[in-house]
Structures are given as C-alpha cells and as structure tokens.
Amino acid sequence: MQAWEQDMFDKVVADIFGFNAVQVGLPEIDTLRSNRMPLVLYAGQQAVEGNARSLQAQVLTDFSELPFASQSLDLVVLPHILEFASEPHQVLREVERVLIPEGQVVISGFNPLSLWGLRQRLSRRVAEPFLPQAGRFISLPRLKDWLKLLSFEIERGRFGCYRPPCRSEAWLARTQFMEKAGDRWWGYCGATYVVVGVKRVRGMRLIGPAWKERKARARAAAIATQSNSHRAKHSTEQ
Prior knowledge:
Shape: globular
CATH class of the largest domain: Alpha Beta
Number of strands: 7
CATH topology of the largest domain: Rossmann fold
CATH architecture of the largest domain: 3-Layer(aba) Sandwich
CATH superfamily of the largest domain: Vaccinia Virus protein VP39
Number of helices: 7
Distance between the termini: 86 Å
C-alpha cells in the first residue's frame, strides 16, 4: 500500500505548480519529493534529509490549527490525516483557509467499502485488527460532500490496493492478479484512494453607490438621444 501511494503522490504532485507546498504528518512517506516548488514544508515531522528545499515547520500534534497565514500556500498534502484527526472537518477548514484561490489539496485515505474495510469491521469482534483501530475511515462520496461544502472541486482521483488484507508474502503473490482485475472491474473497492481537490473562489462584481448608477444611466440616455436627433436631422436634410 505504501509503495502504491508513494507512486501516486509522485505522479500527482509533479504537475502541480506554485511557490509553497506543505505535507501534513506521516513522515514515512515523502509525498512532495517529485514536486518542483521552491519551498517545501513538512508540518508535524522532521524535514526530509538531503532536500535543500525542505524546511521543518512547527511540530504539530493537532492539525486543526495550521501555523500558516491565510491564502499563503499553493499545495497541501494530507496523507491519512483526516481519518485519524479528532476534528476532520476543522482540518479541512484550515486547509481551505491557508490555500490560495485555485490552490490544491491532495488527500489519501482508507476506503471503508473494500476488503480491507470489511476486515477492519470484523476484526473488532472476531479477529486481530489489520489497520489501526483509532481510524474512522471516510468513504469517497462522503469526502466529496465535505469538500464541496468548502467550495473545493474534485479534479482527479484513483483507488488502489485490491488484494485482500493478508500479511503472508505467499498469499500476496497468489492474489496479485486482483490488482489489474480490480482496477478494471470493481474500481471503487480499492483499499485506499488518493484524490486531488481544487479550491474554487467564485468571482465577485463590485457594485458602486446607487447615485452613481443612476447618473451613468442618465448620461447613457442623453448620449443615445443626441445620437438619434443627429440621425433624424441628417435624414431630413437628405
């Protein structure tokens, strides 16, 4: 799963441009290693060694308040942050606050509508947990609704990891065929997903004082009257 997500992050962020990018949490994956922005930040973890562009941001344990100015970031990556956050809605609100208009957020999460999600539900009663029990996994339709309320538009996304949840290398090898089959036949049942959302800001039209608008209309009417009079006079002379 980590290898699949790393590959997806590499492909997705490589085509996102700007000046400032931030990865929030999960130091096991460097989600921004293929991104080409001048400044790359890692919030809540140590900066990646050997990356001259990277800086360590404030160490965070609660991502509901991000230490960045409003509309200061071009890209925010949330690798499995929402499902382990105490207030996932607030985390998304903070992301919306710090992103510039047309800024992008990349989110990865576990899919509850998958074999892994089914195993996780059963493990609470009859088996050993396969994934961390603290996680509250968020389905993609639900995540889309949350993003839509904050004026984000889903630009692209993909599911992955269709093999059943097992730790045996032998069984992983035997079920490898399920990756291609799942991607083709039951695409929404992958164990994990990566989606990209774009912050949309609706255009605004400034409206001046009413007296200015009335004055402008009166002036336009006067010009139209003068034009009509000139045409009528010219026609009479002919």
